[in-house]
Structures are given as C-alpha cells and as structure tokens.
Amino acid sequence: MTYYSKNFLSLATSLAAIGIALTAQSALAADAGETSAQTESSTDQSSAPAASTSAEEYGDMVIVTGSRTAGRTVYTSESPIDSFSAEDITRTTKTDLLESLAVLVPSLDLPRTPGSSARIVRGPYLRGLSPGHTLVLVNGKRRHATSTLGVGGTSAAQSVDIAMIPSAAIERMEVLRDGASAIYGSDAIAGVINFITKKDDTGLTAFGRFGTFGDGEGKTYSAYIGKGFQLGEQGHLYVTAQYEKRDRTFRGSPVPADILYYFPLNASGNPILPRGSLTQPTLPAGATPDPREATRDSNASQIQGESPYTTKSLSADLGFELSDSVRLYSFGTYAERDADLFNSFRLPLRNENVRAIFPDGFSPIRDQKEKDFEVMVGLEGDIGSWNWDISTTYGGNKARIGAHDTVNPSYGLDSKTKFYIGTTDYTAWTTNIGVKRAFDLPISAKPVEFAAGAEYRKEKFLVHAGEPQSYSCGGASVLDGPNAGMPLTSYSYCGSQAVFGYTPDNEVNAMRNNKSAYAELSFYPLENWSISAAGRIEDYSDFGTAKIGRLSTRFEIIPALALRATIGNAFQAPTLATISYRAQVNWGTYIAFSFPVTSPEALALGSRPLEPERSNNLSAGFVATLSDRIHLSVDAYQIKVKDRVSLSTTIRDAIYPGSGALLVSVGLEPDAAINYFINAANTRTRGVEAVLDGLVDMNDLGRLRWSLSANYNRTKVTGLAETSPVLAAFNVPVFSLADTRNLENRSPRSKVVADFVWSIGKFDLNLRETYFGKTIRYGTPTTIPTSGPYAGMREIGYNIGNLFTTDANINYNINDQFTLSLSANNLFAKKPALMPVPLLQPIQSYAYDESGPVSSDGAFFAVGLRAKW
C-alpha cells in the first residue's frame, strides 16, 4: 500500500460502507412507493436499442459502462466514454472489431508484431498501456482471455482476443477511457471495452465484401448473416454466422545478390564451403557459383507481409420474460481461426537443411488452429425496491500449433516436414451476483443509487507437449556437401526448424481462483453535482488480497459546461501463462529459451518471484456544449503502474560478450540465449484526449456529421528492476535500454483523427484522415556493428511514425433493402520507415518496420453489398 494514498482508499471504501448502512436502514422503512427512481433491468444487460449516433442525439445516448447508475449518457458520465453504433462499426469497413476500434478511438492503438504469434492474436493499446491493462466485457460480463501469451507484442499480455467476437452480433460498442478496477475487477487499469449485442426479434441482415491490396495481394473475402426471431410475446433470439478469409501478402526484400543459396564450386566442380558465415555466405576467391544461382527465387524470404487466415464464427443472443419480475438472458459465441505465420528462410547450403528434402531451401510456416467459445446465462428481476442479477459465464480458447514446410535436420532423411508442436488451452468460469436500488435521502438532491455484489472466477491454463520429433535430437549427421558426416548434435539442429515443439518439460497444468466483493454508491450533494464511490476487495488464491477504490465526480457549472474527475487504484496479478510458461525458439543459428521465473535456470541468474502489478490513476476534464449540435470534451490523465511484468533482457554472448559462461553454468550451450519474466519497471503515463463533434444540416445538400479527436501521451519509466549480482558480474542488465525504450514508446506519441460523413439523397460519403505521431522503436543488432554510423551501438533507435493515412467510403442505398459500398483504406499507400541496416537479417537487403499502426501493405480497396429485410 505504500504506492497508493491510503487516505483515498479509506475514503472510497468508507463511502461504499456508508452506502450499505444507509441502504439497509432505508430498506426497513421502504415501501413500494419509494421506487419512483428505481432503475430498470440490469444496466449490464440493457435491452434498449442503440440510439442513432448523430451529433444531436449522441449526448443523449444512455450508456451502461463505467457505472451501475442508470440513465447516464455520454455527456453526463463522470468519466470519458465513447459509444459507437453498428452503423459506425460498418462505416469503418472492418469486419474485425479490434480493427474497428483502432479506427474509431484516438487513444487506442493497434501495433503489429511481425514474426511472432502476436501477429495472429493482436490486442488494443488503450492510453498507451498494454492489452492486458484493458478489460473486455460482452453485455457487461467479463470475457475470457486467449491461450496465447504475448498478445499485441507485449510479452506478458494474455488478454482477450477481440477478433474472435463476431462483429455481426454487435449493436454497439462502449469504450470507457478511464480506470475502473473497483467497479469491474482487475485488468481495468487503462479502461474498459464493452460490446453490447443485438437483441432484435425480427429482420434478416446479410452482408458480403471483397477486397484486395493495390498490387492484387491479400485478397479478403468477408460475409455474415444475422436473423432475429420472436419467441412468443415474451422473448427474442438473434443469431449470426460470419466468415472471413484473407490471403497473404509479401512485403519482404529480395535476398542480396552476393548471398549464395548453394555451395560454390571449385575448379574441379566439387562443392566447397563459402566465404563468410552460413547465414551470410559469399563466393570465395577462385570459386564459381553453382549454376542454379542464376534461376534461384530471390524472393524466397517471405517473413514480412500479412499472415493468411480464415475465421468462422457463430453467435446467439437470447432473452425471455419468465414472469412480470424475472427475465432470462443468455449470449454465446463460437469461433474457429486457421492462420499461418511465415518464418525466416533457410538457405539450401545451411546445415539446418536436409537437401534431399528441400534442395532449394525452405521457409518454415507456423500454423495455428484455434477454437474459441463462450456461453453466458443469467437471470435478473425485481424484489420490492431491489433489482437483482445473477449470471455465470464459461469460456475458453484452445490453440493447436503446428509447423509445416520445415524439417528436423537431426533426423536426416527420416525427418518429417509437418509437425505437431503442441497445444495451449485457457478456460475461465465466472459467476457473479449483484443487487442495486435507488432511494431518497435528505443528503442527496436526487435519488441515491447503490449497488453491491460478489464474483467468483476460476481460471485454468494448460500446455500440452508436441510430438517427439518436433523437439528431440535424432542423432543424424550432415548427409552431403562439404560438411558431410558432421554430427548434428548441437541443440540448434534439433527439433523442427523455426517452430520448436513443446517438450514434456514445457507442459503446464495451472489453475487458480479469484473471489471478489464490491459496493458502489452514487449521490448528488447538489442538483448539478454528482459523486460516485466504489470499493472492491479481490482475493487471488496465488497472490493474496487487494483493496481497490475509485472516486469520481461531475460538476455542472452551467448547463453547457461541466467538469469531471476520477481517482482510483488497481491490482493485477500476473497471468497464469506468465507464471508458468516455458518455451524454446529456434532462430536457425541459436536457440532462445524462455524459463519460468521459479525455474532452476532463472533462479541461478538471480530471478525473484513475480509480484502483482499495482497502479493508480487520476483523470480530470470538462464537457462543453458549444451549440445545440457541437460538443467538446477534453480529459487529461495520469496512470502510474508499479512492478510492470515483462520479459527480461535476452542474455546472449553475441550481445553481451562473456555471458556465454552464464548460459553454460545453467546447462545451456554458450551460443544459446535465455530470458524470463520479471517485474521490470515502474511507469508513469501522462496524456490528454480531446473530442470535438458536430452536425451541419445543409438543407438540399444533405447533412454533414463531423468529428475531430486527438490523443497525446508519454510513458516514462520511473524505476527499473535491480540487476542481480550474477548478471552484473557480466555487465548484463536485467532489463536493457532497448527494452526500456520500447516499453516507453510502444504507442505513437500522438494520434489525430478527422472524420466526415456526408449524407445526401441515397449516398453516404465518409472521409477519414488519421495522423500517427512520433513512434520510436529500439532494436538490438544480432552482432554489434564495428563500423559505420551505428558502430559500437548495442541499442539502435529510429522513428517509424509521423504518418498521415486517408480512408474513404461511399455507400449507395439502392433501395430500402440493399446498400452498395466502395471503400479505400490507406488510399495513398503510406508505409512505415525502413529499419536501420544493422537490425536486418543477413538475407535482407531492406525491411519495413511493421510494429507500428501502419503496415507496409499499402492501399486496400473493397466493394461490399448489404441487404436488410
């Protein structure tokens, strides 16, 4: 608790406790007549249809996120919140909800992570914090996490895979841009994303789209259908089916001409060893190149570009009035995704290749087949003046990982070319119960609203080993070439190349439970002044108990201007995968090991048990109505996070000379690499957000809806983990400068979005201009340069931001049933900066850094057709 204000926490929890006492007293004296301010059915399960998002109605849109108080709107909320309708989602031209969010929310970024599973499973960076710091809800209920570790390129993130939620099922999205852990539990450090599902009981909607990048690659096929059914006079059922398929793109550079694919030939025509290294082989003096060099495929290295995938999903939303006072509600999703991830090209002459199988080399492909599901069922109703809600949610994600177009060279001709790598499996079962009511008290100018409840969650994380040949050593030798007969005993020659299998030692069977209780109280000292307090106690079976509080307020100076502010704290336990994950990655010339923090290897290097992340946040701003149709909101924020969890520095002799002895001391080869999870740093994020929106009625020229939104933030590391004496003796920092700078610069410093929607006659025209500010990246070269502008630099920084992108969309409403759309994303094909030469792989002549919000794929064009009956 030394990191927080104990006085604040005491105040928040005391206010919640007072609410309980006042409520109990009021309940004894209450009668049915006191329910004039009674809230309707659960705010988490509000079945009211989404309002139009025109500027004149936007401020009156009732929201259900950020407070359990009924009737609050986007502009009367005590915290900054955005609400986007299904129409807004459609207008982004994205069928992936995560990509829609990145378009619509200025303070949310979606960086890419080439060459890792995070390329497949991405996550949102809200207010500059990692995906694991944003809580995701569906209909107000916590969504389960993915089984993949490292979501969004943040090594410790095991967050929700939003792309597995079908966009066809969503009526609207609400994004709370503020900490809310006291209301919803851990994870809500940066904010909350709540998806509200469609609850139509009639109608049929169908949609199809085809798109491609400007060069014809990356063809994308999308389709969905949604149908509502009326269940008598008491209920509804809304079901959807959705499909999306994307082909791959190639954005890599040709292999440099001086890099040999095949062994050079001596004067007798026999193959000999090249000059240089096996990763950068060149022609030695007096030798001639193999004739096959003239017809080789110089574009064989295909690690850069979009990964191909196919996603299929189903959803159902059910609601039924069991009686006048009891309602059944349920929601479920099921999704499957098949995706491929290309890895670095293996040259034909390398010892890692079995030339009898791949005479021209190979590009290993990681294939990931996922199944994702969630089922939620609940009851809500009224007893006297009280509204109650009880629900249970069970969901999970399983990823079966494989590899193909690769070999295990240590098995020689007996090597497979397709491997089962292993399976990761995560499930969560959450049950909660809540009550709330409103009542009159003399201390409040408006009815006081009180809510309380409890939650129990059980998590389980499993890792299953792959087949033996995916990780074992077969004992074979090099079969041909100048190195014929050389034993392939080094660990880098064992297992499937690039995608190393999970060994029996990597298997995990971890579980834990979490119990929590909360209370929330909202009251009005004056008609124009609201105060809300929330307190929560969380108890993890593996990390103990934490007390969380939140205090927020809104003061309306005049009807057109209001101030608002929030202060709160949060607690987040390391994920099960972070605690227990163990893996190896075969980089071709060496093996990189990731060990659990409690493993003998990590302990020998000075690791310490992981601590929970603890945070506090403060935000303040104002909301102004400049005219009936123009609104402005500005909010400043500060978020401090203590003990942020991340992977340590990767310890490798090529980067930290002499550290190979450390690796040998823990039983590894001297040219291997090792890292493990640590509480790496304390950070402070400060920023400001602004949203200005309006509506112009141009009579015969139609209506123009416009918005200008911006976010600026900076993250600063305010403290670093202490390097152990073992590492310090070899001049190895436990968290390097490059790691520190990347933690500080994961998101662009600024993001500005100007959006215009012009509706005239049967046409809707949408133009969106987005500016991504300075985005700094730091990389560690494979070998420290000895000459040139980067000589002696262990960490190299460069900017991939300062980019403008333009999106355009035209909708033509053919009639009441059919709408034709034409769209262009990144119309002018803007691309990120090229990487510094020392950070390139030996077989690259150039490479775009695709870890930012803009890829190197260029412009994307699409045509779509929507039908409604």
Automatic annotation (TrEMBL):
Domain TonB-dependent receptor plug: from-to ranges: 76-192
Keywords: Cell outer membrane, Membrane, Receptor, Signal, TonB box, Transmembrane, Transmembrane beta strand, Transport
InterPro entries: Beta-barrel_TonB, Beta-barrel_TonB_sf, Plug_dom, Plug_dom_sf, TonB-dep_rcpt-like
The keyword Plastid belongs to this UniProt entry's keyword annotation: no
Disordered, as annotated region: 35-55, 274-310
Biased composition regions of type Polar residues, renumbered to the chain: 297-310
Membrane topology (UniProt): Multi-pass membrane protein
Compartments it resides in: Cell outer membrane
Entry superkingdom: Bacteria
Low complexity bias: start-end ranges: 41-55
Record domain TonB-dependent receptor-like beta-barrel: where: 324-827
Main location as per UniProt: membrane
Signal peptide: 1-29
Entry's Gene Ontology cellular component terms: cell outer membrane
Protein name: TonB-dependent receptor
Organism per entry: Sphingobium phenoxybenzoativorans
